Amino acid sequence: MKTLLYILSFTLPALCCSAKTIRVGKQQPFTTIREAIAAAEKGDTILVENGTYRERNLVINKPVFLKGIGLPVLDGEKKYEIVAIKADNVTVEGFRIVHSGNSSLEDIAGIKIYNRHNVIIRNNTLEDNFFGIYSLYGINCIIENNSITSFGTAELQSGNGIHCWKSDSMRIIGNSISGHRDGIYFEFVTNSVIWRNESYNNIRYGLHFMFSHNDAYACNIFRENGAGVAVMFSHGVKMFHNFFEKNWGDAAYGLLLKEISDSRIDGNYFTGNTSGIYMEGTSRIQVEKNEFSTNGWAMKIQASCLDNVITGNNFLANTFDVGTNGSLVLNTFDHNYWDKYEGYDLDKNNTGDIPYRPVSLYSMIVEKNPAAMMLFRSFMTSLLDKSEKVIPTLTPENLKDNYPIMKRLHL
Amino acid sequence: MTRIIKYVFTDILRNKIVLGYTAFLLLISLSVFTLEDNTSKGILSLLNIILIIVPLVSIIFSTTYIYNSAEFIELLVSQPLKRKHIWSSLFTGLAGSLSCSFFIGAGLPILFFAPAAIGLIMTAMGLLLSIIFVAIAMLAAVMTRDKAKGIGISIFLWLYFSLLFDVFILFQFQDYPLEKFMIIASACNPIDLSRILILLKMDISALMGFTGAVFRDFFGTQPGLAIAFLVLGLWVMVTFWLSLRKFNRKDL
Known about the structure:
By secondary structure, chain A is mainly beta.
């Protein structure tokens, strides 16, 4: 008896958990994915062969591994939510998901996670969906190597590429997103990572962060989005080694920071934006080892910012290095390299002997009266700037780099 | 008429000041492009030189030339020639020779070193500014018989267009940021207009602020560019026509 129990204790779990593989396709026992899921057990693999499947609202309510072979198409016919994940430990891989419904009442998505753990969405191509991949209360999910494209023209008629709402421990890795309202949207998402994504040509923001604390995003590319990247009302955000490029327009910012605290911005490249970084109401942020080149304004720091440290950055060929709207300065700007610095270094310690003032009088005037941009680079304004450099009257007295670096930093 | 133009043209080209002006422009543009490793920086340094020096030299030289050739003009008027022809040949000679020296001194190096689009517009603007300020100088010279007064007027006009106008724009309309109005305002000053046209080809990201966008939407398009050139052309024609009218009625 003891031996029998002993054997059973090994074999029973193996028997009950032996996952089988179900095939779906034209010549297979199952022709629709819906039937296959109905027949599947926990942990089964469903292999879907090449073809077009119109499943209407496909609900995955069992922990299965759903894999497409040769990129089968799931078509939402412009009416339905295509894949709804309502079970933990689901993997969806290798599908081409197209034409989801469009609604102004519901957030219809190509793939939507409903309040689940450990979901993996991998190697899919999503085209022409309202929302691309949507995580509602998702925890510990991976969204990896998906290509998400939409063709939105107006903000209201278009959803977000990857949308996470009240989620935790998400990993958004290596996706490519374009043509949506916001490329990646985070609201109330904590402890998550956004890594190696490319978000471009979206209507509004490449990445939009709201009330999302202790997240990190690294090595992403945000290019030519309508308004760049916005990070708002969050703390503990780490932004490392991202590229913010060519976000042009009056309301476009490479990186817009609003009410952010205790965060780090390290090793990023801001190139060709109207404003590289725009800060409003931010505090205790470390901006270090970034490169700002050929921006209109490298940084715009509103007077509501407090205790931010901007150090060890390169400022190259920007029209204006720093812009601000008041005379109160509670941030430090020491130890940066500014290509417009005209001081000298007598003791050859690679630190300039006189402070550099990155705010020019003309940039203050333009801040107050944008129409004065008409006189950009005129003899008059350079004359004003030169005299202001000698005797600062209107520009904030304390906004200066006391130890400007003489040579460009190698980042 | 062509003989007068030819005479004025060769007379000015032999003039030491014009030769010096050509050499000066050549020296500056060559040194700017060879010393700066960054072409766009070189263009920026040249930009202010073109916008300041070219109008200054054009206006002062032309005014003094008209005054110095007062006797020559009187002689011509006594001949069976139309005053209109005399005045236009003087203008053509002056504008032609000064444009010529600008083209040799700055235009050729710019076209050679700078990227095509910027080089073309910069050369075009330099040439147009030369011609416009010759026309303005002729208007200033025909206004008064007194040489000192005439040169004074032209120096003031140069000062107005390159500095005072900008001061008005900078501080006068601070409370009324009228974007559309700015386009009209820019048309009222050929120096500002040419600078904006050149800048639109250069650093776009800064000009992409709201005003920048307004300018870009207007002057960045083909019709806008055509209008801008038309406005600059009008500057030449209207000022010259005014001076011609004055000269026709003037008691020499």
